[in-house]
Write a structure and sequence with these properties.
transmembrane; 374 residues; MFS_dom; 0% strand; transmembrane helix; 16 helices
Length: 374
């Protein structure tokens, strides 16, 4: 399809899903019907968001490589994970503003307005995407037919284990902690006040945000791989602190939220910032989107498994074990990153493209490379 077509298509899918979610309604006012309508609508939104990962990130890495090679890492992080991480405090802020205006007696109005805001943002981006050009790297190196996948996996199997495995571990931890953060906080503060819970969530997501900037600052001098190891180490340290001292630390709500936020911030600093970057840098342009998409898909499998496992873990092992398991994932993440993730800090993506094309020629592949831009 190409970068531009993929970006425009995924944006339109997100807008469609958000619109359906805003207008969701159960037959004859049925709450069950509303739930399934929302499930369908959010599923469509999820498909669009899933398509965004490889399409937007690979485009961002290629554009940054062409315009500012020495600052490719920090620029990539600021236009990807920073925007993603900023969505947390932004969403909480929008919710609190709308809730304060509408009141707790009009929660249906609150969630519909919040969903509606989710239509405006992608529509704004769509205007620019309709006018964009694919990167020079992609126009020069795209392989649209007869992609030699067996040769791709033969060359990049080690990198795929690294990016897929690390992404699985990261999403296994961060997604359930994001989805259930409100539940976790409300269980600690012993207060069913939805506004108070949202305020603590806003603080939590705000504490997690500085990790994005620290990762952007460290990714060049420290290197991609070492920065990711540092972030997974934060899961190990803060996960163990919270998990082993859970009963005592939860008695002091601000202290619990700070340590919880620092664990989330470590995730942003390391795998949150670096996974998209290394998944975009580790593979040649012709197969960058495919390998990135595969890595992200394995990550989302980790997110689904982690989300499903979260409640059973709490019920059968205790609430502290959700944090201890995060620490265990941190240890495994360190090992996977050290053994399998390549460090492409400062390497021109065009150099890897040239090596990849030489590799294909040496293995007898003959095919058409490049695309014509309309």
């Amino acid at each position: 399809m190409g970068r531009k077509v993929a970006l425009v298509f995924t944006t339109m899918v997100i807008v469609l899903g958000a619109t359906l979610g805003t207008a969701a309604h159960g037959a004859h006012g049925s709450a069950k019907g509303l739930f399934w309508f929302l499930t369908f609508a959010r599923g469509i939104t999820g498909i669009g968001v899933g398509g965004e990962y490889p399409a937007s990130s690979t485009s961002a890495s290629e554009a940054a490589n062409e315009q500012m090679l020495s600052k490719r890492g920090p620029v990539f992080i600021m236009v990807t994970n920073f925007v993603l991480s900023f969505g947390g405090p932004l969403a909480c802020s929008v919710f609190l503003i709308v809730l304060s205006i509408a009141g707790e007696n009009h929660l249906q109005t609150v969630w519909r307005v919040c969903f509606g805001v989710g239509i405006v943002l992608p529509l704004t981006v769509l205007v620019f995407r309709l006018r964009m050009l694919s990167s020079r790297l992609y126009r020069k190196g795209a392989i649209k037919k007869s992609v030699p996948y067996h040769l791709v996996f033969k060359r990049y199997w080690r990198s795929l284990i690294g990016t897929c495995g690390a992404w699985f571990l990261y999403d296994f931890v961060t997604f359930p902690n994001g989805v259930f953060s409100g539940t976790i906080i409300s269980s600690v503060i012993h207060n069913n006040d939805i506004k108070k819970t949202a305020e603590w969530q806003l603080l939590l997501s705000s504490i997690a945000l500085p990790g994005v900037f620290i990762g952007a600052l460290l990714c060049n001098p420290l290197g991609r791989r070492n920065t990711m190891i540092l972030g997974f180490s934060g899961y190990l340290i803060f996960g163990l602190i919270i998990g082993l001292a859970y009963e005592r630390i939860t008695k002091i709500v601000p202290l619990f939220v700070v340590f919880y936020g620092l664990m989330q911030s470590s995730g942003n600093l390391g795998p949150g910032d670096m996974l998209g970057l290394v998944s975009a840098e580790s593979y040649a342009t012709p197969i960058r989107g495919t390998c990135y998409g595969l890595s992200a898909a394995v990550g989302k499998a980790g997110a689904a498994i982690g989300t499903q496992a979260f409640t059973p873990i709490q019920n059968h092992l205790g609430k502290r074990w959700t944090f201890i398991i995060a620490a265990i994932c941190g240890i495994i993440g360190i090992l996977v990153t050290y053994l399998f993730v390549p460090d492409m800090t400062g390497v021109d993506l065009a150099e890897e493209d040239a090596r990849f094309m030489e590799y294909l020629e040496n293995n007898g592949w003959e095919g058409r490379v490049g695309e014509d831009e309309d």
